[in-house]
UniProtKB/TrEMBL annotation:
<dbReference type="GO" id="GO:0042542">
    <property type="term" value="P:response to hydrogen peroxide"/>
</dbReference>
<dbReference type="GO" id="GO:0042744">
    <property type="term" value="P:hydrogen peroxide catabolic process"/>
</dbReference>
<dbReference type="InterPro" id="IPR010582">
    <property type="entry name" value="Catalase_immune_responsive"/>
</dbReference>
<dbReference type="GO" id="GO:0004096">
    <property type="term" value="F:catalase activity"/>
</dbReference>
<comment type="similarity">
    <text>Belongs to the catalase family.</text>
</comment>
<dbReference type="InterPro" id="IPR018028">
    <property type="entry name" value="Catalase"/>
</dbReference>
<dbReference type="GO" id="GO:0046872">
    <property type="term" value="F:metal ion binding"/>
</dbReference>
<dbReference type="GO" id="GO:0005737">
    <property type="term" value="C:cytoplasm"/>
</dbReference>
<keyword id="KW-0560">Oxidoreductase</keyword>
<feature type="domain" description="Catalase core">
    <location>
        <begin position="15"/>
        <end position="398"/>
    </location>
</feature>
<keyword id="KW-0376">Hydrogen peroxide</keyword>
<dbReference type="Pfam" id="PF06628">
    <property type="entry name" value="Catalase-rel"/>
</dbReference>
<feature type="active site">
    <location>
        <position position="135"/>
    </location>
</feature>
<feature type="region of interest" description="Disordered">
    <location>
        <begin position="15"/>
        <end position="34"/>
    </location>
</feature>
<feature type="compositionally biased region" description="Polar residues">
    <location>
        <begin position="15"/>
        <end position="30"/>
    </location>
</feature>
<keyword id="KW-0575">Peroxidase</keyword>
<keyword id="KW-0349">Heme</keyword>
Length: 491
């Protein structure tokens, strides 16, 4: 590579995007001392045009986030359950990238919203990237992806006023009793984390493992914060700077105080799943630990901040469909909807070749017959000079060929499965919400009722009544406390 003749100067030469040195970055070229700019100001035009294109669409949900790199260390081999290559040898380390986020707010909203926190981990394994795109809650508001856009619309700002809309929030929940378990968690004292270091992470969904023998196990992942869960009340949160969680993460890592999580899994065999009282693929339910104990398998540590927020955190593309041999999906309907949604969003948000952006690029070689598209060759190794079709006769010349050994065992279906629309209205939406309420201390029950009443007191009478009926089905006392807290606000 020849050296730029100007690089011998004291400082790095400033260049235009074509690499040519720029002689003046302070003044435009003008026709005389007081005259207009001339048309040969191509560097000015380049600068302004690039500035106009500095933004990409923000994520439609989870727009506000913070991320860092780190390491996952396996402390217990899972070779009995999975062929996933990063889960074989105790002591094995895998590089990861973890992005935390709030859900509903835009990119410049507050870190202290009462909102779930996203907990998305990219494991750069030797057999491809595995993304665990979870939240800080073990369940979710919905059990069918068809409801997701409606749900998100109801929680975001009102389309006319662009203001928060408690009527819509509770009107959606009043019409969707399946949300009660998650909304109880959200409105509890756990609803506003002190920082990202103080949240747990969960796959929430049931995923799967499969082993050498082709046996499948259903799996839920848990990442327990070693910093302890710490939360804020509404009053405490209101006093925090909007960027507080971002600052906390950056500073703790810069100071060498690396946050970490103990990683655990719950496992259920296919046989157990067939007869277990709770539908194991219902995202609104937990698997009680007494039935499926947590098995500790590793430690996850964050130890390196990003160098550039936009290039890494903003362009990061996590997807539940980023799976590796040994880790699969499950029949969870929400998860299935997500298998499509994320890559679709990222093609729009970042572009067709988003997986070539360094933060997303697998750390193992990528060989395939996908070609071209905007910015193809960001990663030159993927430009692809060889055959661009498959099958071909060139396997012995190094052209990629299928890896039959990586085939996933067949996904079991219920016997006599019929394609239809299954109404899940009759599923039990209330037992686990009631059980959670009964576990709470007096102070926690008060916080829950008051947090609910803040919004519910602004909703219409019919929505209030519908919500009381739901709280009552979870626990009579739950309903009584909420009614009282609403009455205190409307008196
Ligand atoms: C059918 C239901 C769902 C749909 C359609 C959906 C869709 C989306 C979309 C389109 C994005 C933005 C992706 C991007 O632009 O990169 C996103 C981000 C995210 N979603 Fe979901 N989502 C669903 C349910 C869930 C659930 C149940 C969880 C957690 C258990 C979850 C966790 C996340 C997280 C953590 C992010 C941010 C990832 C990041 O940090 O970049 N989502 N979701």
């Amino acid at each position: 590579m020849s050296k730029c003749p100007f690089s011998g100067a004291m400082s790095t030469p400033l260049t235009a995007s074509n690499g040519a040195p720029v002689a003046n970055d302070n003044q435009s070229r003008t026709a005389g001392a007081r005259g207009p700019v001339t048309f040969d100001n191509h560097y000015l035009f380049e600068k302004l045009a690039h500035f106009n294109r500095e933004r990409i669409p923000e994520r439609v949900v989870h727009a506000r986030g913070s991320a860092a790199y780190g390491t996952f260390t396996l402390t217990k081999s899972l070779s009995e359950f999975t062929i996933a290559d990063f889960l074989q040898q105790e002591g094995q380390q895998t590089n990861i990238f973890l992005r935390f986020s709030t859900v509903g707010g835009g990119q410049d909203s507050s870190d202290y919203a009462r909102d779930p926190r996203g907990f998305a981990v990219k494991f750069y394994t030797q057999q491809g990237n595995w993304d665990m795109v979870g939240n800080n809650t073990p369940v979710f508001f919905l059990r069918d992806g068809i409801k997701f856009p409606d749900f998100i619309h109801s929680q975001k700002k009102n389309p006319r006023t662009n203001l928060p809309d408690p009527q819509a929030v509770y009107e959606f929940w009043a019409n969707n009793p399946q949300s009660l378990h998650q909304s109880t968690i959200l409105m509890s004292d756990r609803g506003i984390p002190l920082s990202y270091r103080h949240v747990n992470g969960y796959s929430s969904h049931t995923l799967s493992f499969w082993n050498k023998a082709g046996e499948r196990y259903w799996v839920k992942w848990h990442f327990k914060t070693n910093q302890g869960i710490k939360t804020l009340t509404n009053e405490q949160a209101a006093k925090m700077p909007a960027f507080g969680a971002q600052q906390d993460l950056i500073e703790s890592i810069d100071n060498g105080d690396f946050p970490s999580w103990t990683v655990k899994v719950q496992l259920m065999s296919e046989e157990e799943a067939k007869t277990y009282a709770i539908n194991p693929f219902d995202l609104t339910k937990v698997w009680p630990h007494s039935d499926f104990p947590l098995m500790e398998i590793g430690q996850l540590e964050l130890n390196k901040n990003v160098d550039n927020y936009f290039a890494e955190t903003e362009q990061a593309a996590f997807a539940p469909s980023n799976l590796v041999p040994g880790i699969g999906a499950s029949p969870d309907r929400m998860l299935q909807a997500r298998l499509l949604a994320y890559q679709d969003a990222q093609r729009y948000r970042v572009g067709a070749n988003y997986n070539q952006v360094p933060v997303n690029a697998p750390r193992c070689p990528v060989h395939n017959y996908q070609r071209d598209g905007a910015f193809a060759g960001i990663n030159p190794a993927l430009a692809g000079a060889g055959a661009n079709f498959y099958p071909n006769n060139r396997a012995n010349q190094g052209e990629p060929a299928e890896v039959v050994a990586a085939a996933e065992p067949p996904m079991p279906l219920e016997q006599d499965a019929w394609l239809d629309i299954y109404d899940t209205r009759d599923e039990d939406n209330f037992s686990q919400a009631g059980a959670l309420f009964r576990l709470m201390s007096e102070d926690q029950k008060n916080q829950l009722a008051n947090n609910i009443a803040d919004g519910l007191s602004q909703a219409s009478e019919d929505v209030q009544q519908a919500m009381y009926a739901k709280y009552e089905q979870a626990d009579k006392e739950y309903a009584e406390r909420v009614k009282q807290a609403v009455a205190d606000r409307t008196r």
